[in-house]
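INPUT
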Amino acid sequence: MALWGRRSLGALRLWGPGGERPGPVRAPQSPQSRVWRPVCAGADGVRARAATEPRWREPGSVIGGRRAISLSVGASGIFGSGGNSEKEKLSLQDIAELIRVRACQKVVVMVGAGISTPSGIPDFRSPGSGLYSNLQQYNIPYPEAIFELDFFSHNPKPFFTLAKELYPGNYRPNATHYFLRLLHDKGLLLRLYTQNIDGLERVSGIPTSKLVEAHGTFASATCTVCRRSCPGEDFWADVMADRVPCCPVCTGIVKPDIVFFGEPLPQRFLLHVVDFPMADLLLILGTSLEVEPFASLSEAVRSTVPRLLINRDLVGPFTWRPRSRDVTQLGDVIHSIERLVELLGWTEEMQDLVQRETGKLDRQDR
Ligand code: OAD
Ligand code: ZN
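OUTPUT
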């Protein structure tokens, strides 16, 4: 079906030939997970329901061996050959060194729900703890219905119950968010592409100019009937009081600007066209890379650019199309970030930043 085609397109052709921006769709199966079937379709609105629940890939471990690299030669020397030999494999230490000596200073980051689980927000697909395994109380026919327009238009309540849970202020950023903030403070963050709708990147102090909130945000909302736009503050009172927010002009349901399956992604997602070819390092944190077109961005950096995956398990092209300069750090994201921060020599700065920002949030809560 048409969805598979999109997955194999290159960076500049992530969106269809007519320039349309497809909404999020499940990524195609990797060679390792052939029985997987898509659950949602793209802009054409066609949906193929999964006959089975989403499948989970086996975790693996491909942490590259430490090797001596001459950092004085700069990024080109390191990215140079694109060779495939085992001894050229980079390690987490190498990545830290590339950042430390500023051989990499245009860092693009892709994140997903796994970076917010340490803040107490469940991810989507982790068996048992993930949101999609715990939606019984929402009374919906199948998990992804919570992000489907058809379902929302006849029963918006489950989505607003979830929205209430994600109310800004209910959760706080963790070390991962603050590490990304530090990357920005040091002038190294080219852009942070997030699939998360919890807004914790903003709360951590990363400016919106550095963010692409690919699956939308609760910071604004749009009337589903007259398309009038309003700021988030206008609907939170209703959501917190368990009322479905309605448009003051036409009484249509006001939907927070979260991207539902089949909806176009925000305009800012287009920035990938310039950001990814420019990136000199790609960090991918806490995502299953199961949802398109976001997932394909992981292949949109130049083939010589190192990619670091920090995740509980091996995902996406790190499994089925690994590159010679891939580094994978499997396990808990906080543990990996702390290790990276230590290798970078940023531990003290991180502690100061976290203390400062936590103090700010404490004062706001009073
Ligand atoms: P998923 O739930 O699909 O994947 C989260 C990934 O993070 C999994 O690979 C987990 O193993 C990993 N993970 C969770 N906690 C972790 C931890 N503490 N340390 C390390 N890894 C951890 O979430 P996303 O990839 O973000 O769409 O899902 C993508 C999209 O699917 C979401 O944006 C959402 C959903 O449908 C919309 O909201 C439109
Ligand atoms: Zn309206």
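end of record. Residues 1-21, 28-85 have pLDDT under 50 and may be disordered.
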